[in-house]
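Q: Now give one record:
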Amino acid sequence: MLQAIAAQNNLSETAFYAPEGEDFRLRWFTPLAEVDLCGHATLATAYVIFCERPELKRGITFHTRSGPLQVTSEGDIITMDFPATPIQSTHPPQELVDALGIRPIECYTGCDYLAILPNESALREVRPDFRLLQALDQRGVIITAPVRRQISFPAFLRQNMASMKTP
């Protein structure tokens, strides 16, 4: 039933939560599948709970497929402790190069591929083949590049998750 609701919503993720003792159970669904972790939907869910139950602002625990997630609120700031996923440097597999249409200058793997392209221009121009991305052996692909101009952040990021494709 939760999957059907997420498909009807047709958003990148839909979050569902329910009380579980003093904590909460939290699950996330794309229109096509349940996913292990969704940070923005977790923060949005915590915001709703903190608004409805301000006494919980000291902290709540969500039990998820990724393990427990701790969320706290102080003033207007909501903080979440993400689970760490170790990554390791790898040679970009040919399937990834084919899916991106460009060979990354660096590549890392953990739950996802992290592909670093040579520059911001290459990142803006990349047009991933989502059909090929879905066939990769990782959950998704994160594409980024160093930025050489003066801006207030050090990298430009595009995220393409094959599992987020709408039907």
The CA atoms of residues 122 and 145 lie 8 Å apart. The longest helix spans residues 39-52. The chain has two domains: 2-81, 88-164.
